[in-house]
Design brief:
Elements: H1 2-29, E1 42-43, E2 49-50, H2 52-55, E3 61-66, H3 73-85, E4 90-95, H4 100-110, E5 116-119, H5 123-128, E6 135-140, E7 143-149, H6 154-164
Parallel strand pairs: 3-4, 4-5
Antiparallel strand pairs: 1-2, 3-6, 6-7
Protein name: Protein disulfide oxidoreductase
GO molecular function: antioxidant activity; oxidoreductase activity
InterPro entries: AhpC/TSA (IPR000866), Thioredoxin-like_sf (IPR036249), Thioredoxin_domain (IPR013766), Thioredoxin_ResA/DsbE_sf (IPR050553)
Length: 166
């Protein structure tokens, strides 16, 4: 039995160390919301103009910074797109992925129905101080509730959105 106890203890220690490392990395790489970001009008690829304040008033909003050239984004974007398709409150920002036509073609080829703001020169990402793709920002009632970077699952995003309302 002592071997089994040791194995569980080592597994618990590994989990705690991993959680601590992820937390430190998220704090270190966290984007910084620019002044008056919530009311800034942002044009989507579909011709609408949105504000993050309006989109996040009734329920939490996932702001997803990604790029077509990002290796990790190839694994995370399908989950984000599925979340949006299931009625999740999502807006994505395509970083340095080409002009509107190129981003539209990319989304269409991958079958992603995702409200998207194109950021071809990375100006919006620079305002937010996004240094890593993918980056996720959860907003609720115009305020940043949480941020994370790197890989996360669709269920992890759902949990973060649910938690933002608490």
């Amino acid at each position: 039995m002592s071997r089994l106890k040791r194995w569980f203890r080592d597994l618990a220690l590994l989990a705690i160390m991993t959680l601590a490392l992820v937390t430190v990395m998220d704090k270190w790489r966290a984007p910084q919301a620019p002044a008056a970001f919530a009311s800034q009008p942002l044009p989507t690829l579909y011709g609408e103009t949105v504000t993050l304040d309006a989109l996040s008033q009734q329920r939490p909003l996932l702001l997803y910074f990604w790029a077509s050239w990002c290796g990790i984004c190839r694994y995370t974007t399908p989950g984000v797109a599925a979340l949006a398709q299931d009625g999740g409150n999502v807006v994505s920002i395509a970083l340095r992925s080409g002009d509107d036509s190129r981003v539209n073609n990319y989304l269409r080829a991958k079958h992603y129905a995702l409200p998207t703001i194109n950021d071809p020169q990375g100006r919006l990402a620079a305002q937010w101080q996004v240094g890593v793709t993918p980056t996720y920002v959860i907003l609720y009632q115009g305020k940043v509730v949480s941020t994370t970077t790197g890989w996360t699952s669709r269920w992890g995003l759902k949990l973060r959105l649910w938690w933002a309302q608490r």
